[in-house]
């Protein structure tokens, strides 16, 4: 499954989150290897950012990196507010579970991974490929679900509590609990991320380009528009004054319709990670069919 162009272009908040997670996880592992007790400030920071096991870091960082697609779609202001809101709710749920039932809490940004899964990935990302494994029909979204499941059961019961708290926080955000979806990070904070973290390990190109990921409903509407356009194009030309159809009129209009792909179809392929020129060329080759153009590009 494609999450758009590689790297962190247009996703400075995700870059800052991952840099903090990876660096703090490595530092925590070094402190543990030296058998030293970390300072209080380091302990508080590592509880929010550092995964305690290499396997958790691998799966957790990979999922957070994939979810940068939502920052590109929403913009850094809204996505950053989403992270702050769901993280606060999830940590409150973890504290309540610990106080009421004595359940341990896990270290690392578990809530952010599972809040993205519940609030965004399940509903907003359409499947692109379908396949069968041992008789089971699956889609390419299954890989994200399997990675999330692996992270969820990595260190029970702490990981289960953290994952469940993140899922609940994500569902509350999706239901717009207390108007959470209206929250935005201040522009000064976003500018600070872009000017500092956004410049770290950055390549050429704009830093705040926003990519739109089509939903399943948008894909279905696009396919319906394509079918209607094809039906209109193959209807042929109008008869001339003498009653005879103009020579080659239908074919000319069909060629003209296929010459320029629709902007919506180009944008869908760009959101999946392809260059705009390549997307337009593929759509011309496939008669403006998004699915066929995707297969052509792959």
Automatic annotation (TrEMBL):
Membrane topology: Multi-pass membrane protein
Keywords: Membrane, Transmembrane, Transmembrane helix
Residue ranges crossing the lipid bilayer per the database entry: 49-67, 79-103, 109-131, 143-173
Localization annotation: Membrane
GO cellular component: a single term: membrane
Region annotation (Disordered) ranges: 235-259
GO molecular function terms noted in the UniProt entry: serine-type endopeptidase activity
Pfam family, one: UBA
Main location: membrane
Biased composition (Gly residues): 235-251
Ranges of residues in domain UBA: 260-298
Matching SMART domains: UBA
Stretches assigned to coiled coil: none
Name listed for the protein in its UniProt record: Ubiquitin-associated (UBA) isoform 1
Organism: Micractinium conductrix
């Amino acid at each position: 499954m494609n999450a758009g162009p590689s790297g962190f272009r247009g996703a400075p908040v995700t870059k800052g989150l991952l840099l903090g997670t990876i660096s703090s996880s490595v530092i925590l592992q070094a402190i543990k290897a030296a058998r030293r007790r970390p300072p209080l400030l380091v302990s508080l920071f590592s509880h929010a950012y550092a995964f305690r096991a290499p396997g958790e870091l691998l799966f957790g960082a990979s999922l957070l990196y994939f979810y940068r697609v939502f920052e590109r779609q929403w913009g850094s202001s809204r996505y950053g507010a989403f992270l702050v809101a769901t993280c606060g709710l999830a940590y409150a749920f973890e504290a309540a579970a610990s106080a009421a039932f004595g359940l341990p809490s896990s270290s690392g940004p578990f809530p952010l991974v599972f809040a993205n899964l519940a609030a965004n990935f399940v509903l907003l990302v359409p499947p692109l490929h379908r396949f069968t494994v041992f008789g089971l029909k699956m889609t390419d979204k299954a890989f994200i679900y399997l990675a999330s499941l692996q992270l969820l059961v990595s260190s029970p019961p702490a990981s289960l509590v953290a994952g469940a708290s993140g899922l609940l926080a994500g569902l509350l955000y999706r239901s717009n609990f207390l108007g959470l979806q209206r929250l935005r990070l201040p522009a000064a904070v976003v500018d600070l991320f872009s000017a500092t973290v956004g410049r770290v390990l950055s390549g050429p190109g704009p830093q705040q380009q926003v990519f739109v990921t089509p939903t399943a409903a948008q894909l279905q509407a696009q396919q319906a528009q394509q079918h209607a356009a094809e039906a209109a194009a193959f209807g042929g030309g109008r008869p001339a004054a003498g009653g005879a159809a103009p020579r080659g009129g239908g074919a000319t209009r069909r060629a003209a319709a296929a010459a320029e792909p629709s902007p919506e179809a180009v944008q869908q392929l760009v959101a999946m990670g392809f260059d705009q020129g390549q997307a337009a060329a593929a759509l011309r080759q496939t008669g403006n069919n998004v699915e066929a153009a995707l297969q052509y590009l792959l």
